[in-house]
Design brief:
The complex is a heterotrimer of chains A (260), B (361) and C (183).
Chain A: H1 3-6, H2 33-46, E1 53-57, H3 65-68, E2 72-75, H4 81-91, E3 96-102, H5 103-109, H6 111-119, E4 125-130, E5 133-134, E6 140-141, H7 160-163, H8 169-174, E7 179-186, H9 190-208, E8 213-219, H10 223-226, H11 230-244, E9 248-252, E10 255-256
Parallel strand pairs in A: 1-2, 1-3, 3-4, 4-8, 7-8
Antiparallel strand pairs in A: 5-6, 7-9, 9-10
Helix pairs in contact in A: 2-9, 5-6
Chain B: E1 3-8, H1 9-20, E2 24-27, H2 35-43, H3 45-48, E3 52-55, H4 59-71, E4 76-80, H5 82-97, E5 102-108, H6 124-128, E6 139-141, H7 146-163, E7 166-172, H8 173-177, E8 179-184, H9 193-200, H10 224-244, E9 248-251, E10 258-261, H11 264-279, E11 284-289, E12 291-293, H12 297-303, E13 309-313, H13 320-328, E14 334-337, H14 347-359
Parallel strand pairs in B: 2-3, 2-4, 4-5, 5-7, 6-7, 10-11, 10-13, 13-14
Antiparallel strand pairs in B: 1-8, 6-12, 9-11
Chain C: E1 2-10, H1 15-28, E2 32-37, E3 47-55, E4 67-72, H2 75-81, E5 85-93, E6 108-111, H3 114-120, H4 127-138, H5 144-154, H6 163-175, E7 178-180
Parallel strand pairs in C: 1-4, 4-5, 5-6
Antiparallel strand pairs in C: 1-3, 2-3, 6-7
Classes of the chains: A alpha/beta (260), B alpha/beta (361), C alpha/beta (183).
Bound molecules: thiamine diphosphate (TPP).
């Protein structure tokens, strides 16, 4: 059989959303950023929202998100995306607005902006990629780096005494009255991808209903920064990140989820 | 001779800080200078000398950690690169206003905004003309080699304490990332609490004993008359720096008809251009300011009458050229050449600019 | 003596560390050295290059447009740097993965089958030392004993057991450069 016999319209089972550009992703092979981008763009395609959406790209590996997401985007200074998004959303309350941020961007340099946007209940969506490290700058310690985890600025492992504790910013923002839907997901398996996509869809639907800030953490990997093969990195993530950053909803309909 | 090592500029400045007996380093990762904090973390300075090293949550936090430690009389160092240094500006203004000593290194990258991570010299204005608010000045040292990255730590702290003023070491991605041979100084002991008390006890906030008045570190005075007095005092200090602390280096200026003025990386590149020019029989010289503030105004003014033209070479759209023009009071033709936005000019390009803009122009 | 060298290839081929060992070797024999890398968020498989200068005199510009020697380890680097070798200079390359061989007639061109030899010796990590050996055979700017000293200086203590293997690689390289006559 020739490849041409297979590549036919009637055999099509999956197609790249036109809301992703044709640019080659700059992410390392195996990185979760690409999948997370795709999910957000597929949801916006389903909503038919390309013309009504403004995205905010952070500083981090996803600084070039605007090269891949086929929508109008604004590139913000390191950590300031929630403030930039506030500026946009307050002027265009009927548009979809979201930020896409890494853990360094959102939970270190941008903590103040994150907390205050959440506390004000700004009507936009935050997509938060937690890979436990600063990927872009070459693998330094992040606020979410686990205890004992080796990075280039914690070369002997994160020492909680001198470097502080890994920050569960998601649980923290869930405490704030301004957040409406807060959840933690992943994108390492097809099942996880489907769940995450549902959560993203829900967040954008709630944004349309002016319910307040929706916050989606995606626990992800950084095989380059963790110095592991892609497969090993995902295993390591499941074994080490998930116990500390448990999967699932943290706040639904403005109510904290009580886990028992 | 001290220990010889092959090191990156970023590593050399970090090692020099440990050996200087620095008490604390606060910083936040940013390319092209993350090796400073990475090197410090790897070296376990808390075991070597007791030096504190902390990765802050942001540059806003880092510079205020510096403010705190400096206010408490400790020797404190920090480093960042352009976007991070922009965030430092508020803190630097407070530190200058409160007259606190510290050393800050900027390993400059191309801007504006997020720009590029490649080398640039476009932060000259920010460094020597202000950056933060208010009438203040930063003593600015511009290293042109890995050796000077190390050496300017010691010089920087000497000047910082002499004037109770922040000192900026202004380098760029080229000096930060390149490796050269560096001779390291012997380890100095960190100051003991007693030494700090003796040296800085008259002003530092380290706890009030019965025997003295309270030490308050502030840059605020709601009484404008007093604020003006404070500014007079700062200005007098800056005039003293301008008369006593000018540093520069010259190459082949004795018989020079044409002068290249360049600092830091550009001065290194221009040295090669100079050799190429001399090989062609062009009587060129090189003037390298080492202190950018205070700028070597007088020395340049003295050279000017002998010259047919000056080429200012910087990796920017032309910033230092304004100070050169002020120095020579426009008595000589001064032109700018430089690649920017992260591009480094080559020795050949500099020579070509000299020939076209100055000699042929 | 001043030797200005560009070493260029893929990230992961040991381009930067080859330059570093060469620079350290220069220091071991009291010379001035500079090592200036291309830097950036180099993705896996991205290109990497480093300019190394070894000289008896103080080094001026660590960044150059023209080189006495270009050591070239992939096609992109061949396309970029073949033209930057000074007339009469040296171009040393590994033909593995090269689709367009050098064409200049005014320079000396040599090939070293570094990748193949490394595979034959059972360790792809010593590839860069084989290439360095070939270079030093053609331009003995630093003595082998100083390269070994340089290796000791640039490798962390725990890797010193690997030095004999690196020395063997250097020697294998020294025996194998092939002169190429461009077509
Ligand atoms: C003001 C400022 N400080 C520092 C940097 C350098 N910087 C760029 S990305 C980054 C961290 C990114 O980490 P994270 O947000 O976790 O995203 P990731 O790259 O891992 O996706 C830092 C510190 C910068 N660009 N601007």
């Amino acid at each position: 059989m020739d490849i041409k016999d297979i590549v036919k319209e009637e055999n099509l089972v999956y197609k790249k959303t036109p809301l992703m550009t044709n640019n080659v992703l700059s992410y390392c092979p195996g990185c979760g950023h690409g999948t997370a981008h795709r999910i957000v763009m597929e949801v916006l395609e389903e909503l038919g929202a390309q013309a009504e959406t403004i995205g905010v790209a952070p500083v981090g590996c996803s600084v070039l998100a605007y090269e891949f997401m086929n929508i109008d985007m604004i590139q913000a200074a390191h950590g300031r995306a929630p403030a930039v998004a506030t500026g946009i959303k307050r002027c265009y309350p009927d548009k979809y607005v979201f930020t896409y941020q890494g853990d360094g961007d959102l939970a270190a340099i941008g903590t103040a902006e994150t907390i205050h946007a959440c506390n004000r209940g700004e009507n936009f969506t935050i997509i938060f990629i937690n890979n436990g490290i600063y990927g872009m700058t070459g693998g330094q310690m992040a606020p979410t780096t686990l205890k004992g985890m080796k990075t280039s600025t914690s070369p002997y492992g994160r020492d909680l005494g001198s470097m502080g504790n890994p920050l569960k910013i998601t649980e923290l923002v869930a405490q704030l009255p301004g957040t409406y839907f807060v959840t933690r997901q992943a994108v390492h398996t097809p099942a996880a991808v489907r769940k995450t996509k549902k959560a993203v869809r829900k967040a954008f639907d709630l944004q349309k209903e002016n319910k307040g800030l929706c916050f989606i953490e995606i626990v992800s990997n950084c095989n380059s920064g963790w110095k592991m093969s892609p497969v090993k990195a995902n295993q390591w993530m499941v074994e080490n990140m998930f116990p500390f950053y448990p999967m699932g909803d943290v706040k639904v309909d403005g109510q904290l989820v009580i886990k028992g | 001779m001290g220990e010889l090592k092959l090191m990156k500029g970023n590593e050399a400045i970090a090692e020099a800080a440990i050996r200087e007996g620095v008490d604390a380093y606060f910083g936040y990762p940013i390319t092209p200078q993350s090796e400073v904090i990475e090197y410090l973390m790897m070296e376990k300075p808390e075991e070597r000398t007791g030096m504190v090293v902390l990765q802050a949550e942001s540059e806003l936090a880092a510079i205020n950690m510096v403010y705190g430690a400096a206010a408490a009389g400790k020797k404190v160092f920090t480093s960042s690169s352009s976007p991070g240094i922009s965030l430092y500006q508020e803190g630097i203004s407070y530190i200058a206003g409160a007259e606190l000593p510290c050393v800050i290194a900027n390993v400059v990258r191309g801007g504006p905004g997020l720009g590029t991570i490649q080398p640039s010299q476009a932060d000259y204005f920010q460094t020597v003309k202000g950056g933060g608010h208010g009438d203040y000045r930063l003593l600015t040292l511009a290293p042109a080699s890995v050796q000077e990255m190390a050496d300017f730590i010691e010089l920087g702290f000497e000047l910082a304490y002499k004037y109770k003023n922040p000192v900026m070491i202004l380098s760029d991605g080229m000096i930060g990332q390149m490796m050269e041979k560096v001779e390291l100084k012997e380890q100095k002991p960190r100051w003991t609490d007693q030494e700090i008390n003796e040296m800085n006890g008259s002003w530092a906030a380290i706890g009030k004993p019965e025997t003295r008045e309270r030490n308050i570190i502030t840059s605020l005075d709601l009484d404008s008359a007093k604020m003006e007095q404070h500014n007079h005092h700062l200005q007098a200090k800056y005039r003293k720096m301008e008369s006593d602390e000018v540093r520069f280096e010259t190459f082949n200026t004795d018989d020079a008809e044409y002068l290249i003025v360049a600092y830091g990386s550009s001065a290194r590149i221009a040295q090669k251009s100079l050799a190429l020019a001399r090989a062609k029989g062009i009587k060129a010289g090189l003037f390298r300011p080492i202190t950018l503030y205070p700028f070597p105004m007088k020395a340049l003014a003295e050279l000017a009458p002998l010259l047919k033209g000056i080429l200012s070479v910087e990796m920017s759209a032309g910033q230092m050229i304004e100070d050169i023009k002020l120095a020579v009071e426009c008595n000589v033709r001064v032109e700018h050449f430089g690649r920017y936005g992260g591009i480094i000019h080559s020795p050949e390009e500099v020579l070509e600019a000299l020939e076209q803009k100055i000699i042929g122009g | 003596m001043t030797e200005e060298i560009i070493i260029a290839g893929f990230g992961g081929q040991g381009v930067l560390s080859m330059g570093k060992i060469l620079a350290y070797s220069g220091i071991m024999q009291d010379q001035e050295v500079s090592w200036m890398p291309s830097y950036g968020p180099e993705m896996r498989g991205g290109t990497a290059n480093v300019t190394v200068i070894v000289s008896d005199e103080r080094i001026s510009s660590p960044i150059l447009n023209f080189y006495d020697t270009a050591i070239i380890l992939n096609q992109q680097s061949m396309d970029k740097f073949e033209s930057t070798v000074k007339p009469g200079g040296l171009l040393l390359y590994d033909p593995n993965g090269i689709t367009r061989h050098p064409e200049r007639k005014d320079i000396n061109i040599y090939a070293i089958e570094g990748a193949r030899l490394a595979a034959e010796m059972g360790n792809t990590k010593i590839f860069n030392m084989i290439v360095l050996g070939a270079y030093l055979k053609l331009k003995p700017i630093v003595k082998l004993e100083n390269v070994i000293l340089g290796l000791k200086k640039s490798l962390p203590e725990r890797y010193h057991k690997l030095i004999p293997m690196n020395e063997a690689a250097l020697k294998a390289g020294m025996e194998n450069p092939q002169e190429m006559v461009s077509a």
